[in-house]
Amino acid sequence: MWAGVAFGIWMLSLSRIDAQDLVVACGCALATGVLGAAGRWAIGGSWPVIGVVGRAVVRLPLATVVDSGAVILNALHRRGGEFAKVPLADASGMDPRAASRRVQASLLISYAPASYVLDIDERDGTALIHQVASPAPSPCEPLSR
After folding, report:
1. Dihedrals φ, ψ of 127, to 5°?
2. Rounded CA gap, 26 and 4, in Å?
3. 116 DSSP β-pair partners
4. Among candidate residues 113, 116, 95, 93, the one with its CA nearest the CA of residue 105
C-alpha cells in the first residue's frame, strides 16, 4: 500500500510522463514501501481501517466544497472560528485500534477546510478542534459517540 500511494503521488505531480519517470517512480515507491512497512513493524504499529470511517468519507466531497465557501465568507466578514471538544468513539487508550482511530479521525476531520484537529486526548478520546460555521454535514458526526 505504501508503495502504491508513493507511486500515485509521484505520478500526479508530473505534467508529462515518460519511461524515465516510470523507472524512477517505481524505484522510489518500492523503497518507500519497504521503509514504511519496516518502520511500522519496528514500532509495532497497526492502523486497521475502522468501519465507521466509510460514512465520514462519503461526506467529504460535499463538506469540502461547502466548507471552502464558508471559510471564504468568514474571511471576508472577518469572523473567526470557535474551539470545540468532540468526543471520538473508541479513541481512548494506547492500544493499536484506539491509536488508529485517532489518526483516522484527525485526517478525516482536518480534511474539510472548515475544521482542524489541534489535539486528541489519549486518556478520554476527545478531540480539540477549531471550526468555522458551515452548513455542510460535518465529517465529525460519524466519528463521535
Report:
1. -105, 135
2. 9
3. 130
4. 116
Q: What CA–CA distance (Å, rounded) separates 45 from 57?
A: 23
| CB-based burial label for 18 (10 Å; 0-12, 13-18, 19+) | exposed
Q: Report, as ranges of residue numbers, the positions in the chain whose pLDDT lies below 70.
A: 43-56, 134-145
| Cα 53 to Cα 143: distance, rounded to the nearest angstrom | 7
Q: What is the pTM of this model?
A: 0.56
The residues, any chain, with a CB within 8 Å of residue 127's CB and separated by 6 or more, are: 85, 86, 87, 88, 91, 102, 105, 106, 109, 117, 119, 120, 121, 140
- Strands 82-87 and 126-131, how do they pair? antiparallel
At 58, list the grid cell: 462519503
Distance CA 123, CA 108 (A): 21
Q: At what angle do helices 53-76 and 96-111 cross, to 10 degrees?
A: 40
Residues in the chain: 145
User: Which position has the grid cell 462519503?
Assistant: 58
